[in-house]
Amino acid sequence: MVRVTTNDRRSALRAGAAFVTAGALAAGCTAHGVAHPAPATRRSAARAPAPRHHRAHPAQLTHGPRTRPRVALTFHGGGDPATARALLTEAERHDARVTVLAVGTWLDEHPDLARRILDGGHDLGNHTLHHLDINAMSEAGARAEITGCAQRLKRLTGSIGTWFRPSRAARASPLVERLAHDAGYPHVLSYDVDSLDSTSPGAEAVTRRVLGEIRNGSVVSLHFGYADTIAALPAVLEELGHRGLRAVTTTELLS
Question: What is the DSSP string of the chain?
Fold first, then answer.
């Protein structure tokens, strides 16, 4: 019979703890399967927070947490720059922040708007280069659409932006999702509320549709370049305030 002394037990416990710690760090996961970086990496992440929904491949995000009174108004960036500026100014007047998914050729024509968006505290992301039906394109064509817009964002702002949204589609095909990830976008940003403002249904119809469907965590699809959107936005923002819903950037919604 082998006797186990108190010192033996302490040594075993220390060895076991070291083994568990090393194993956890090597596995890099929790019960939820989400990797936890080393402390130094965590401090870096705190300086540039990333959404909690990060995966190895981009998720098709349609909304944020339903437990917090926040929403994201997302605008497809194109059209008359005067309309874009008016919408940004109106949002800021209500202390709201928005997300702009910009078309690359639109940025070519109006490069100053990239800084205007960011300087206003808004998010800026990628909505392809030419706003074509990206899900119907070849792999080479779709890649060029994504990277072409990313290059313009990088040149104008120093960043490709956090968010990518496919053009002429609410959701990306598996191919486009993969290409977006390859280009540096961990997420494909969809939405759960479509304002249908691009069909020009009238400001009251846009207001009614948005307010009828929006709730905690919603991501709303809107567009620059439409008079109905400008006319509807004040009423939408005022009602959100009455409901206690804050319009924030998508980054803040998902952080």
Answer: -----HHHHHHHHHHHHHHHHHHHHHHT--TT------HHHHHHHHHS---TT--SS-EEE-B--TTSSEEEEEEEE-S-HHHHHHHHHHHHHTT---EEEE-HHHHHH-THHHHHHHHTT-EEEE--SS---GGGS-HHHHHHHHHHHHHHHHHHHSS--S-B--TT-SS--HHHHHHHHHHT-SEEE--SEE--GGG---HHHHHHHHHHH--TTBEEEEESS-HHHHHHHHHHHHHHHHHT-EE--HHHHT-
8 A C-beta contact, residue 216 and residue 244? no
- Per-residue pLDDT for the chain (255 aa), expressed as one digit of tens each? 434 444 444 443 343 333 333 333 233 333 333 333 333 333 322 233 444 444 444 589 999 999 999 999 999 999 999 999 999 999 999 999 999 999 999 999 999 999 999 999 999 999 999 999 999 999 999 999 999 999 999 999 999 999 999 999 999 999 999 999 999 999 999 999 999 999 999 999 999 999 999 999 999 999 999 999 999 999 999 999 999 999 999 999 999
For 11, residues 6+ apart whose C-beta sits below 8 A from its C-beta are none
* Of 145, 79, 89, residue with least CA distance to 110: 79
